[in-house]
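Memo to structure team: turn this sequence into structure tokens by end of day. - J.P.
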Amino acid sequence: MPTAANTAGNATATIVGIDEAGYGPLLGPLVVSAVAFEVPMALLTSAADAAKGPDLWHVLRASIAREASKKDPRLAVADSKQLHGKTATRYGIALLERAALTFLAQADRYPANLVSLLRIVCPHVVEQLPRYPWYARAELPLPVECSKDDVAVQRNAVTSDMAAAGVRFRGAWVEVLCEGNYNHLVSATQNKASVLFHQNMRLIQRIAERTAGRPLWIWADRHGGRTSYLRPLMSAWDGAEFEVLDESPEHSGYRLTRSGTPWVIRFLVEGETHQLPVALASIFSKYIRELFMICFNRYWCGRVPNLRPTAGYSQDGRRFLADIEAAATRQGLDRNWLIRVR
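Reply from structure team:
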């Protein structure tokens, strides 16, 4: 059976997808994730649209679907907003969970709880959790809603499909900014878009360290109306050489060379609809944020009778804060560690 090491004349490429969840809410963390795949170089060179890159949905169509369907047994990998809440489960995370745990299983990683998951993808955040009473005991057992047997079946199907296509899952990397840490960074920069961009760059650096200086092809979801990323990229990677590939309303692309190693970084509008790795990154981000919100809601519902849980977004977040006001006051909480700015 062919593998990534012996397909396409031993020439392989590492492609990366990056996306976030929780950029706008009033409560809960901002989570930014990156996933990486090793693929035959031929997939890059044969892509019909260089900006949008190779179509891994087509390559892995035997085991992975672009949308969820009860009639389709394949693993759904799509924009997390399309998967969250689509199943009649308590938290609506079954499809997110199935996808995230299936890919972690490709690397023989089977987290037993939220803390063990964080130790795999974002170990540095674990030491911060005790500062937040609602996350201090984040040993939420996993899986929450999907079954271990389902994950095992999907893992076998995806493993076989990727091996046949010469594709290898390299891993997932995550940056979690809990409320107080998020506020500190936003206050320091006065710009939450800069905070998000910095988390993107941290993820790229972590992947670069793991992939030992290999060239990277990176796709990130684009936010807001920015079309030029040259200056922030130059600030993030001081001393690198840059080439602008394209800057348009739909996508912005750059070639960056550091110590002789070239990277291509592209920012796509609705990147999760064009690149499977970006969609999978959005799944990891949304899944992990939702696990944090389960912990958050359990904590406060245990202290305020008949409290209705929140997803943390602006209007309902303000309702929730009003409902917990008395309990939060009794605890003497520093609101900067509870409520996000901007």
